[in-house]
Design brief:
5 strands, mainly beta
Length: 81
């Protein structure tokens, strides 16, 4: 297991990209670390956003504002507030 390098991130300097979902839009700001392909991403979801795909990777989520529901392909879900 590698250590994640601690650092401050100036999100104002990170490009924002737009990603349409099945409904709504997600706005991503992503940094790529040289650590085993680790990405850190700040995401803003529009109200009613529903992804148009199932992600096969694991995620660690920290909700900064509002709430959301994470659903996995089997139909299980976690409500995050």
């Amino acid at each position: 297991m590698s250590n994640i390098p601690f650092q401050a991130i100036n999100w104002d300097k990170i490009e924002r990209t737009e990603h349409k979902g099945e409904t709504g839009t997600a706005y991503w700001q992503t940094i790529q670390l040289e650590l085993d392909g680790l990405r850190i991403r700040k995401v803003i979801y529009s109200e009613g956003y529903l992804a148009d795909h199932w992600c096969q990777k694991g995620h660690i989520v920290h909700c900064l504002e509002g709430n959301f529901i994470s659903e996995i392909e089997t139909g299980e879900y976690n409500k995050n507030t």
